[in-house]
């Protein structure tokens, strides 16, 4: 028995580059070939056709198959003839030409600009061919087409085997069974059939590997083993390529190491990991290769390529009684004309309509009767489809893809009489009838064209013997699958037409032309800074990276933002069932994958925690102090941990063991004494989350245990605040270059006070990236310069206001195969579509510099959250190593609680920060000094502020402080152009009253604070906030009170007009009670910090530099009486003399409790002694505080730096600098006790 034939393909690598002998013949329109040899760039002459038009080409015969790696061109010697742009076609047998493709496009090469310089183009991928056609596209307008050329490459040899569809070849290994960890399989194939098996091998244990064609796509199926009961499924199938039935050679390389596989088809590689848990491929000693019809015999069919302006005109039988046309086509466009012919009494159109083959027959002698038939669906899928139209006698039949069962038949009212001329793909415009239905020409390929049941000889058409054509390429099908490889990222669905592709990003969590940009924010903290409130959100920690977004709960109620991931375990879950070893295993799953959780815990969050609790009865936990633990939990990386909540790694204790308060001092867990509960927080985030809990002491009679594993909670976002400060025009930060990707995105935040500077730049061998800011008179511009493969793209985005305002701004850049995008602050954007022939990758071979490295002025300011292709760059670490750059962001306006109080705006500076208090009722370095009137006894005081633009308020906030000994009086009165009003008054007994009159009520709605005398000379603060019917009152440090307007009351404060402070001097319809009881003589005392919504009237009245609609009556003098905030702590009800429920309390301002002479002598003496003692103590305390905590006036800070014990950046500064506190004005002279 003969040894089976071994099938193998050998390819020789090019080692030495040398000139290939050129055998050139010249094809001119009259087909008279000329011949010449070895035209060198340094020699004389060159090729120039007789006619200079787009139909000329030069064909090179290399004598045998060669591997071509480069081409060099030069103009014709000493002439004005050169070719500036060209394309290359190649073929093995001078038929079925294939265009050279690069980056998924029919590539256009840049040629010469003169006749002497040599331009060499390296091929991105080497081509294997014998024949090459040089196709001139553009040439010197003042000369003719001309070229001298060289091709560079090396010899190529390989064994070739033809398959007729029934043959099979076996490859036998030396041993009968192969258990393989590593495989490398390479082969090349060509075919015209879209389905068939190339290679198959299997083993007795169910392992197999198979390579096959399905609908002209290549499928690799592999199974390294499945479990007997099906719990582990090892089958894995990956598809690659498209349109592989084009009769051209395709290269396949399969590399496997254990479960990791690289699957390469024509230089496009897919990396994947097989399913299951096995690593070996167990095969029998035979691997089979087979196919339906693999043959290197040249195909008899010749394709025809049509573009949007093409047509092919062919003759047929005239005056015939049968119309018979058939053809095969492939296209991506849903609509287009396939064939048109005129009849003696009408015409026939055959074409595609929304993916269906449709026939329109128009009969003119029957009053323009139209007959329509259609068949098939989704035929614009790029596959070959056959169409046969037959009209005979009084009926017509349409058959698609040879399916006779689906043939559509219809009757026609006349006898067909053919016209004898057929147009394919389009018409030449000289037809008797204009096209009524197919306005669009066909774009795609046709072959096997039959007219009157005769195959059209396209060679004769090419030689001009029959028919005519325009813009048609014969012997070539230049169809391109623009969705292979799929440029739609993150699972986006790709669809295409002939010219372009589009991505459907629905449901992916990403957006953009290629589904590259994240749709969601990277963390809860970013949502919080956008003004969002607590709730469920999708987050995407790695942005455009491979990790998909996932849903979390964001808690923004505290100063620190918490991110919560919930799990499937209910609180107090009973632990009942156990295995044969007496252990119960509880699996904990989360609403995120392990990769997503790991990204959140290890890279994004500052800290994480998870609550665990174990309630027990006769069920031990850790078996402390020295026993083997009965229970453990499994965390990240499947590691076991033997500590419990409240303890730490390596400490086999529970919380009570750490705090020394366990029920039984002899154990370190309460449950180790078989009673109570052990609970606490797991805080070591590198071990979290809990994925499994194994409970091992529940099998005893009477034992009981309940387990609680709370949600995973993480706080902060380290990457979002990773920042660096650039303090010198020559400073820059250096990073290694980032790898080129099909899509590249860059995102960062910045703030600066400088109008000019370079953000970042990188210059590579064929790529350049440059982003900078330029200031103009009233605006700023962000400029992007991007050069990829010689294509220069420049984008600019204009900001309507200057960007050097010391506020955070965001720059986002994305470059993909379809477009380049520049976005500023999420609102201003510019988009530039990529040219049709675009490079897929941004390849940066040199380093990346933040700032300028080429002598330009660097960006000055802060930059944070730099992310490129989903990867966060550690700015702080690199800045610590770089002179002129500081870690973090100088100043303190970026995060957490800022020291600009009461609504003040923090303004960033490079050696600190300042507070802009212009829109508040406060002054001072931190907007804490309340503007006040002086206490005066020389008459009443009144201030009026005229409002404009306020109308129909449903929400308002009134805030002010006061101190006085005088009552009654009006503190604040807000009027309107209607009868609506708001008044805050002190009544005769010193208590506070709020009067709301919003319409709908007979009398104003009043709120009486009867239990406190406010006219006691002490400072008091009042905050009144209304939202529709709900009124909230915050008085001093007392608890917040809530009141509700009656249902009959209106909720709109209409047409707000004026704010009166101290007294009302307005005519018109005013609350009579207000005027009679409280308006005379007017307020006497200290009034400060008055703010109504965004209006600060008192501050405007006291600042001479401010222009405001304010008028004053009486004596109004600035004072420091309102400079100190209220410092009296809240009293308990037992000690509050103004609390109505205090036992034995006497209201001191009731007239019947006073002596006749108005003096209580005992009380006065005791009160005087107490006052002197208190005053002395306070003076001593003030002296100590003022000299111990004196403000230094320096705020050099580093964001995200500070004491380890601090909860935030502010706390870090306070920990590091004990002298940091708000100053007490040296001019203070008044104290209120």
Give an account of the 3D structure.
The strands form 16 sheets. Strands 22, 23, 24, 25, 26, 27, 28, 29, 30, 31, 32, 33 and 34 form a 13-stranded antiparallel sheet that branches. Strands 1, 2, 3, 4, 5, 6, 9, 10 and 11 form a 9-stranded antiparallel sheet that branches. The relative contact order is 0.05. It contains 9 helices and 81 strands. With 1233 residues, the chain is mainly beta. It is globular, with a radius of gyration of 43 Å. Belongs to the neurexin family.
Give the low-confidence spans: 1-43, 291-295, 932-941, 1123-1161, 1189-1233
Rg from alpha-carbon coordinates: 43 Å
Largest sheet: 13 strands, antiparallel
**Alpha plus pi helix count:** 9
Helix content: under 10%
Please count the beta strands (DSSP E, at least 2 residues each). Answer: 81
- Please identify the structural class as seen in this structure: mainly beta
Specify the overall morphology: globular
Taking all residues together, what is the mean pLDDT? 78
C-alpha termini separation: 116 Å
Q: Strand portion, in percent?
A: 35-45%
Helix-strand blueprint:
Blueprint: E1 18-19, E2 23-27, E3 34-37, E4 57-74, E5 83-91, E6 98-99, E7 101-102, E8 105-106, E9 109-110, E10 119-139, E11 148-155, E12 168-180, E13 182-189, E14 196-202, E15 208-214, E16 217-223, E17 235-240, E18 250-257, E19 260-265, E20 268-273, E21 281-290, E22 304-315, E23 322-330, E24 336-343, E25 346-353, E26 356-363, E27 369-375, E28 385-392, E29 395-400, E30 408-411, E31 418-424, E32 444-451, E33 454-455, H1 458-462, E34 468-474, E35 493-496, E36 501-504, E37 510-511, E38 517-518, H2 524-529, E39 535-539, E40 550-555, E41 562-565, E42 573-574, E43 584-587, H3 594-604, E44 607-617, E45 632-634, E46 640-641, H4 655-659, E47 677-682, E48 692-695, E49 704-715, E50 723-726, E51 732-735, E52 744-751, E53 757-763, E54 767-775, E55 780-788, E56 791-799, E57 809-815, E58 819-824, E59 828-833, E60 848-851, E61 861-868, E62 871-872, H5 875-880, E63 885-887, E64 905-909, E65 912-916, E66 922-923, E67 929-930, E68 932-933, E69 941-946, E70 955-963, E71 969-976, E72 981-986, E73 992-997, E74 1005-1009, E75 1020-1027, ...
């Amino acid at each position: 028995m003969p040894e089976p034939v071994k099938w193998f393909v050998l390819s020789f690598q090019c080692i030495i580059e040398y000139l290939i002998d050129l055998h050139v013949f010249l094809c001119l329109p009259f087909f008279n070939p000329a011949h010449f040899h070895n035209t060198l760039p340094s020699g004389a002459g060159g090729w120039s056709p007789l006619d200079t038009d787009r139909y000329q080409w030069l064909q090179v015969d290399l004598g045998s198959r060669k591997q071509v790696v480069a081409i060099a061109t030069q103009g014709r010697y000493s002439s004005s003839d050169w070719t500036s742009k060209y394309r290359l076609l190649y073929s093995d047998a001078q038929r079925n030409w294939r265009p050279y493709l690069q980056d998924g496009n029919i590539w256009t090469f840049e040629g010469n600009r003169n006749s002497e310089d040599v331009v060499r183009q390296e091929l991105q991928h080497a081509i294997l061919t014998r024949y090459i056609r040089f196709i001139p596209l553009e040439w010197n307008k003042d000369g003719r087409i001309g070229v001298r050329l060289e091709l560079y490459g090396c010899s190529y040899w390989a064994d070739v085997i033809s398959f007729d569809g029934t043959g099979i070849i076996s490859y036998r290994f030396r041993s009968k069974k192969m258990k393989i960890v590593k495989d490398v399989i390479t082969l090349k194939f060509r075919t015209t059939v879209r389905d068939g098996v190339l290679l198959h091998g299997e083993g007795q244990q169910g392992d197999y590997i198979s390579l096959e064609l399905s609908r002209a796509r290549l499928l690799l199926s592999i199974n390294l083993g499945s479990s007997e009961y099906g719990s582990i499924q090892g089958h894995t199938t990956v598809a690659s390529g498209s349109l592989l039935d084009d009769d051209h050679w395709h290269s396949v390389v399969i590399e496997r190491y254990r479960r990791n596989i690289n699957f390469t088809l024509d230089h496009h590689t897919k990396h994947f990991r097989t399913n299951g848990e096995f690593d070996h491929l167990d095969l029998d000693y035979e691997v089979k290769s087979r196919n339906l019809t693999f043959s290197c015999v040249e195909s008899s069919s010749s394709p025809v390529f049509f573009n949007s302006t093409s047509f092919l005109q062919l003759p047929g039988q005239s005056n015939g009684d049968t119309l018979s046309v058939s053809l095969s086509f492939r296209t991506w466009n849903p609509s287009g004309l396939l064939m048109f012919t005129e009849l003696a009494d009408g015409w026939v159109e055959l074409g595609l309509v929304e993916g269906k083959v449709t026939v329109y027959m128009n009969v003119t002698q029957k009053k323009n009767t139209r007959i329509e038939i259609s068949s098939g669906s989704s035929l614009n899928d790029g596959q070959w489809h056959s169409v046969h139209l037959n009209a005979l006698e009084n009926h017509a039949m349409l058959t698609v893809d040879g399916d006779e069962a689906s043939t559509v038949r219809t009757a026609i009212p006349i006898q067909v009489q053919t016209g004898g001329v057929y147009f394919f793909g389009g018409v030449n415009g000289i037809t008797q009838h204009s096209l009524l239905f197919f306005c669009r020409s066909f774009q795609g390929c046709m072959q096997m064209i039959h007219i009157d049941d005769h195959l059209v000889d396209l060679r004769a058409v090419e030689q001009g013997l029959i028919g005519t054509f325009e813009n048609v390429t014969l012997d070539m099908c230049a169809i391109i699958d623009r969705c292979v490889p799929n440029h739609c990222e993150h699972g986006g669905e790709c669809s295409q037409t002939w010219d372009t592709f589009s991505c459907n990003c629905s449901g992916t969590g990403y957006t953009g032309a290629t589904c590259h940009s994240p749709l969601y924010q990277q963390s809860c903290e970013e949502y919080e800074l956008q003004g969002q409130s607590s709730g469920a959100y999708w987050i995407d920690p790695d942005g455009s990276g491979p990790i998909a977004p996932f849903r979390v709960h964001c808690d923004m109620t505290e100063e620190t933002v918490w991110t919560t991931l919930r799990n499937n375990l209910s609180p107090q879950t009973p632990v009942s069932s156990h295995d044969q070893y007496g252990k119960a295993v509880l699996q904990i799953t989360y609403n995120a994958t392990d990769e997503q959780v790991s990204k959140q815990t290890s890279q994004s969050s500052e800290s994480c925690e998870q609550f665990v609790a174990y309630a027990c009865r006769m069920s031990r936990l850790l078996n402390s102090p020295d026993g083997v633990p009965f229970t453990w939990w499994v965390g990240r990386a499947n590691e076991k941990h033997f500590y419990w909540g409240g303890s730490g790694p390596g400490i086999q204790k529970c919380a009570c063991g750490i705090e020394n308060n366990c029920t039984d001092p002899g154990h370190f867990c309460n449950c180790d004494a078989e009673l109570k509960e052990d609970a606490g927080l797991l805080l070591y985030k590198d071990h979290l989350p809990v994925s499994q809990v194994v409970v091992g002491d529940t099998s005893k009679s009477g034992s009981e245990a309940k387990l609680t594993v709370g949600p995973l909670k993480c706080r902060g976002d380290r990457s979002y605040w990773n920042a660096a400060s650039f303090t010198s025009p020559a400073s820059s930060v250096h990073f290694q270059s980032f790898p080129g990707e099909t899509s590249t995105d860059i995102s960062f935040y910045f703030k600066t006070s400088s109008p000019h500077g370079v953000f970042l730049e990188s210059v590579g061998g064929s790529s350049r990236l440059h982003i900078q800011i330029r200031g103009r008179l009233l605006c700023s511009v962000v400029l992007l310069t991007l050069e990829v493969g010689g294509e220069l793209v420049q984008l600019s985005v204009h900001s309507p206001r200057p960007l050097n305002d010391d506020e955070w701004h965001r720059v986002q850049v994305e470059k993909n195969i379809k477009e380049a995008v520049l976005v500023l602050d999420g609102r201003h954007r510019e988009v530039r579509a990529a040219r049709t022939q675009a490079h897929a990758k941004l390849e940066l071979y040199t380093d990346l510099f933040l700032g300028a490295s080429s002598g330009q002025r660097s960006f000055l300011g802060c930059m944070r959250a730099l992310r490129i292709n989903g990867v966060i760059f550690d700015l702080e670490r690199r800045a610590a190593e770089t002179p002129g750059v500081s870690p973090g962001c100088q100043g303190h306006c970026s995060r957490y609680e800022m020291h600009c109080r009461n609504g003040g705006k923090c303004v960033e500076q490079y050696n600190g920060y300042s507070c802009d208090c212009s829109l508040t009722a406060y002054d001072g370095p931190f907007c804490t000094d309340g503007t006040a009137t002086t206490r005066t006894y020389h008459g009443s005081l009144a201030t009026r502020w005229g409002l404009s633009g306020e109308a129909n308020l449903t929400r308002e906030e009134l805030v002010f402080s006061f101190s006085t000994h005088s009552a009654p009086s009006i503190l604040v009165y807000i009027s309107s152009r209607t009868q609506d009003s708001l008044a805050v008054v002190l009544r005769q007994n010193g208590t506070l009253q709020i009067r709301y009159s919003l319409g709908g009520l007979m009398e104003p709605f009043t709120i009486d604070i009867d239990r406190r005398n406010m006219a006691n000379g002490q400072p008091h603060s009042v905050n009144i906030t209304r939202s529709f019917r709900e009124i909230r009152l915050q008085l001093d440090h007392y608890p917040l009170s809530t009141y509700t307007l009656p249902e009959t009351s209106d909720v709109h404060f209409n047409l707000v007009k004026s704010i009166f402070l101290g007294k009302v001097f307005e005519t018109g319809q005013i609350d009579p009670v207000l005027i009679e009881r409280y308006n005379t003589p007017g307020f006497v005392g200290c009034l400060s910090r008055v703010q109504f919504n965004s209006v600060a009237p008192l501050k405007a009245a006291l600042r001479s530099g401010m222009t405001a609609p304010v008028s004053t009556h009486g004596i109004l003098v600035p004072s420091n009486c309102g400079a100190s905030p209220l410092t009296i702590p809240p009293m308990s009800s037992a000690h509050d003399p103004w609390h109505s429920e205090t036992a034995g309390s006497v209201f001191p301002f009731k007239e019947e409790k006073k002596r006749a002479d108005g003096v209580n002598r005992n009380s006065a003496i005791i009160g005087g002694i107490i006052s002197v003692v208190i005053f002395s103590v306070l003076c001593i305390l003030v002296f100590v505080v003022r000299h111990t905590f004196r403000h230094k006036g320096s705020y050099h800070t580093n964001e995200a730096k500070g004491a380890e014990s601090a909860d935030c950046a502010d706390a870090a500064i306070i920990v590091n600098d004990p002298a940091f506190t708000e100053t007490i004005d040296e001019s203070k002279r008044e104290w209120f006790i």
